[in-house]
Amino acid sequence: MYREFKEFVKSRHSESLPDHRRIDLKKAAVRSSNRSGNVALTLTVKNSDYEYATRKLIHLVHEIYLVFLQEGHYDYMIEVFNLDPDHL
Amino acid sequence: MKETTDSKPDPRTSRRNFLMTPAGAGAIAAAIATPGQLFAGTSATIPTITIPKEIPATLNEAPKVGTFEGRGMTGAEVFAKLCKEEDLAAMFCCPGNYTVINAMAAAGVPSYGGRSEGPMCAAADGFSRVTGEATACSGTEGPGFTHMIMNIASAHAARTPLLVLASNMQIAGDDREAFIQTGYQQPITTGMKKYGKRLIAPDRVWEYGAYAFRNMKSGVPGPVHLDFPGEVARARFTDPANIKDFYTKDKYRTESRPQPSNKEVASAVDMISKAQRPILVAGQGVFQRKACEALLQAAEKHEFAVVTSGPMRGHFPDDHRLSASLAPDALMSADLVVFIGQYCMPSPGEYRFNPDVKTIRVHPVQEDLGRNWPLDLGIVSDEKVFLESLASELPSKKRDAWVNELAAARKKFEDTNLAHYQLGLKHSAATDHIHPAVMAKEVHDFLYKGDIDPKQTVTGIGGWTTGIFSGRWMRANRPGQGLACGYQYGAIGPDLAMVIGAGAAVQRGVGPQAPYKGAPVLCITSDAGIAYSMFELDTAAKYKIPVIAVVYNNNCWGMFPAAMGSARSMHLYLFQENLRYDKMAEGLGARGEYVRTPEQLRAALKRSYDAASKETVSSLINVQALKEFTSGNVYPPGIALPTEPGVGAFAH
């Protein structure tokens, strides 16, 4: 699952995404790390455009919940987030 | 199944004779064309399932509306007269509240009697969801009324204009527990109705009927609950002057609708024009207020995306190039969202829009604007009036980049579905059981890729694993073609009854169902869900409403993963394995099919459709599966929650 997660984070910088969806590598970069199962995101701001970078980070976290986890990791959401239909 | 058609005097004309005669005995039957002898008795000593001739005979009787002459009108007849004048589209009930349901049926309100009150309430809801019309359900005082509760709540969550009727003993017996079935009804529907009243003054029966329709047909609709003590239902009126506020409907309610100001329309047009990627969420109000055509005109003129929401589907066609209902990946790109007729508002994070999206919301009542979702512009307006203004005021515009992004997202969604299907095929072949992705794709191909008009068949889906997989594949290409049976309230099991109600609307060609009058309808539900309304297959047979019920049978409640790791719990979630719902259906007068391979399912769908369309005979297809298909760890892809808004959505 972490491999998929890493791939998802990386894909958010892809040239194949439209501009409004992409994290522009000239302005910011986000990478993931995994230490004994504790996953973290690191944001690097490249041209002092902190507003852009922060906004993109917020969007990324939003997409992790609403796209990455929702689309393919139902079991994980039950185990980690205690998901059930009564608590969606 | 057989239908009695003899013209000789029926020996069962008296109640005594009727009760003394075994059902079906002595009937000279002419078969409604049925395949083979599926419903015939298995031996000479077991009678065939038969529709008694009283059913078609009484359905064909002329309406008889009460009059003030002679003995006059009962309170029930006065109320029925109002319902008829309001064009109440249908009433679904079980016997009980006799004075009222008899008066309604006699007055000419299309009426259906079924096997239990809960599913009949769901059927009334289903009829309304695919037509936008007000409908009624009815049950007897205590038990019949309380049996309806789950589906009243479901109708409330769906903002259905549903008239809930029930008898309620006599005022004279209040607080005495006189005889049986006493209870206070109105407190029980608190929180699940728009308006309710126990009628206690016989001379105000018309006035409160007016309250009911004023509430159902104004603003945001919702259930209205009226309970009738005997003193009201059986009151006699020989002079209309004795009935309070005995006005025609143009005096007790109005068709006037809230209109946006020119300034508000100009502000909305300005925001939409400046947006790069606008999307309009077309809620149920667009359907219920008959604004689909205006929406289509505005969208095509200005090329904004449209995604539908609500308990019914199809108010913007899924197969339109501007539809985002099959393009979940594009939702996050929208920079402006316009909610119109979204009666059940999500909170940010429940809809897949980006955190910076600007918002316009158009709603018919002011007090809901700003609830749950922050506004950049809120407009009080009727949906149709506003969309007509947009169609008129928006400039023509081409948004090639946005349209291309929608197309790419749609392709990605369809490719993902196909990938799931391929995985499902492998799992099906390996286990000799049908994976839910395979079931959904086969039904999809049958309804939309073969000889059937893809705009024709009304479908309703429910269940957990079943609904989630099927939701990705069912389409609504015209208004009123789809039902999200579990919408918002998440009730398990009303699915089949709801689709039977929708089937009654299609059978009569009501509203948007007119071009498809008489076509079969199809329900996909689960083994857990079917238990709640399976007996209504008898009702479908009795009224010759052709339904195909596809039952995903995975031997369990879909939420069985919740028991994993919990001691002594799993047995709570499991059924006997390999139960034969197809056999049960045969016992109720429907056809039964049992399938374990995609090829068998394909053939069963064809046979069932033929029986439904040519012979008005319903079928239940038992799709045998494994509960383990729910798990993505064992059988990928497993469950994926539907994107909201869009196809498969059921929460908002």
Report on this model:
The complex is a heterodimer of chains A (88) and B (652). With 88 residues, chain A is α+β, with helices and mostly antiparallel strands. Chain A has one domain (2-87). In chain A, 47% of the residues lie in helices and 18% in strands. Chain A has three helices and two strands. In chain A, strand 1 and strand 2 (38-45) form a beta hairpin. The mean pLDDT of chain A is 90. By secondary structure, chain B is α/β, with parallel strands linked by helices. Chain B folds into four domains: 1-58, no CATH class; 62-252, Rossmann fold (3-Layer(aba) Sandwich), CATH 3.40.50.970; 262-403, TPP-binding domain (Rossmann fold, 3-Layer(aba) Sandwich); 432-630, Rossmann fold (3-Layer(aba) Sandwich), CATH 3.40.50.970. Helices cover 35% and strands 15% of the residues of chain B. Chain B contains 23 helices and 23 strands. Mean pLDDT of chain B is 93; it is low at 5-38. Chains A and B meet through helix 2 and helix 3 of A and loops of B.
Topology:
The complex is a heterodimer of chains A (about 90) and B (about 650).
Chain A (H helix, E strand, L loop, with lengths): L1 H10 L16 E8 L2 E8 L4 H23 L1 H8 L7
Antiparallel strand pairs in A: 1-2
Chain B lengths: L1 E3 L10 H6 L8 E3 L18 E2 L2 H6 L13 E2 H11 L5 E3 L4 H10 L3 E3 L3 H15 L3 E5 L3 H5 L1 H9 L4 E6 L27 E4 L6 H12 L7 E5 L1 H4 L2 E2 L11 H4 L9 H13 L3 E5 L1 H5 L3 H11 L2 E4 L3 E2 L14 H4 L4 E5 L17 E6 L13 E4 L2 H11 L6 H32 L4 H13 L9 E4 L3 H7 L10 E3 L10 H14 L12 E6 H4 L5 H7 L4 E7 L27 H7 L3 E5 L2 H18 L3 E6 L28
